[in-house]
Give the backbone structure.
Amino acid sequence: MKKAVSLLIVVIMLVTFSGLASAQTELSLWYHGAGNEIERSILIGIIDDFNASQSDYTVALEEFPQGSYNSSIVAAALAGDLPDIIDVDGPVMPGWAWAGYMAPLNLSEGALDDFLPGAIGSWNGEVYSVGLWDAAVAIYARRSDLEANDIRIPTLDDPWTGDEFDGILETLQATGEFEYAFDVGMAWAGEWYNYAFAPFLQSFGGDLIDRSTYLSAEGVLNGDAGIAFGEWWQSLFERGLAPGTSQDGADRETGFIDGRYALQWNGNWAAITALDALGDDALFLPAPDFGNGSTIGAASWQFGISSSSKNKEGANAFIEFAIQDEYLAAFSDGIGLIPSTSGAAAISEYYSEGGLLEVFFELSNRQALVRPVTPGYATMGLIVEKVFADIANGADVQDTLDAAVDEIEQDIEDNGGYGFEM
Amino acid sequence: MISAATARKNAPLWVRLLLPRDAPLYQRNDAIMGWLMALPALVILTVFLVIPFLMAFVISFTNQRLISPNPAEWVGLRNFERLLTIRTFTLEPERDESGAYVYDGGSLSYPRLREFTRNNPDYPELDGLREFTSWQSDDNRTVILVGDVVFLRALINTLIFAAVIAPLQGGLALLLALLLNQALPFINVFRSIYFAPVVVSMVVVSLLWRFIYDGHNGLLNTILGIISFGSFQPVDWLGNPYTALPAIMAMSVWQAVGFHMVIWLAGLQTIPASLYEAAGLDGAGAFQKFRYVTWPGLRNTAVLVLIVITIQAMGLFVQVDVMTRGGPLDATQSVVFQAVQRGYDKQDIAEGAAISVILFVIVFTIAMVQRYITREKN
């Protein structure tokens, strides 16, 4: 017994003194990508470089699986135990900022000048988060198929128009060579629906909500543009041009590469696989313009600072350190993401001039439109996700959009405007 | 020597409370030991079941959000009203200035319902309601308006699911148990085969069945095509509102039937062989043996199986979450899926809690009714 007690005392002393010996303050960093070895090694590299570059702070990394990351943050916030540096998904950020989980960033003047618009997370006039990468979506196509059917290859400056695109889908379907002309990815039920399909709605001139007030969706989601979008969207599935909500994940992964789908609406993360399979024949084309310009979604995972951090200065220093071009390029080379700055793009493998995925950087730079920047997005997104699914399955377009508007506005009212002036 | 009654009077209050009135005091130690042994289970049940349920009950009367700086407020029965409101409303055809009906391409024209249900000061009781279904009565259209179309669909689907699953799964499990309750060689191999799906995670099973049900090149369509010599038209099982729920039912029965088969088997093996011998001597045939020996002997097992399957069926969630997410067109919405989606995904904990409370009341009622119907009549 005595032995045990004295041993305990020694242990306590050792711990205490070793703590005193290092005058460095520890900053905790939570990350969503547990299980991804490449991501981990790049992030650890950045942390090691940062820890070695100065003597005031050390960053300690804790990783979570993506599926349980958000609930871990919510639980930590309720327990008053948030990390100093938070990793946050772009559309979720306003919710966490509004709830008081996050503090605005305090980076040096001009630190974000070169950044892609989608990689900067602003809410309420303040920058809360910044992303080391962004993602973009394009139409995957085979050059050979387009040429065989005399289809013009569109450019960023001159994308397909809505009618032209619709005609192309009919033409490709009519060849009989494909199960479906256009795979939009209905198998990826979830946030993909909003991220990938809302840009079509926006290109028609509609949106999820009126972004000037963030209080009403009437006439925006269910206006003439919304209805025009809905009818076109429904007709894609009615005419058998696109696989519906029952598409399984395996078909989504391999359908285009195997040649069963003529065109595919997919993100840059799948581009390497397509290039490996198709080589030069693979094309990544900009979204069609349905009248209001071509648009794609934006904002991926970003870094921010928790409001309860006692070391905000250190946390800011780490984020500023991490957004150097070389690290952005390292993530890009490692996992194929779009680097957030043109400087990083220029030194990256895939997005530099003549790089295999160069086109995606310009897509992000010129067409990106972030999802509605409001704490209400969490709920709104799910409501609209169901709209995309229901209309695809044949629900009445006007009724579905009207109901979604009512539900969105009810939720905003229940939440006292989500921080916007009612 | 003091009498038991005196000792009881002198004993501390808690001992008196724990002991039956007529128990001799020497049982005191037994009672204490009993409660001590039950303690871990009681603590765990209280912390993880009783307290969360009580919290859900309280939260269902507030507007508590998962993530929000706004403080929670009492809202009374608002959450329940929104979920459960059902009204009928008669929609009259539109008339022109002279009062005659307006015809639109030969059929009567009606005003849009939304004119009544959205910010209409003349119809405050209809605010926020949506059409569930409607029918024609003479020139008017009668509409059933409900506060929450999706929840009502979820409730109906879940009840249909339970009503189909309970007899189907219980019956099939009994059939399997009877087949496998024989002294055949390798019988344990067959028992293991039928039990195998039970030990596989429901998530995995659901993913596999998504491929089986694929509308183009799924296993089911391919097999049906082969055995019908190609005359069978492929069905998009999970993409069609009419086949999606039956498809989930079939797959759920396949997954869980082995579990209840084992319970039936256990029940079958408690029936003494001598009863069958006696019945055989009396000249009973196979059916009569089942009717007058097996079935009465399985009475308690049957009650257990029925109640367990019903409760499990009312908790339908994983299959829906993995396979259809409630679609297509709400054909596979379930109550628990809605509770989770609203509570966590839409961050409306209060509404999720209200759904849980409603589900509790329903399951409790069903279990009580089943218990009453299947009670020992004498």
About this structure: DSSP finds 16 helices and five strands in chain B. Chain B has three domains: 27-57, 86-146, 150-373. Residues 35 and 42 of chain B are 9 Å apart (CA to CA). The first strand of chain B starts at residue 86 and ends at 91.
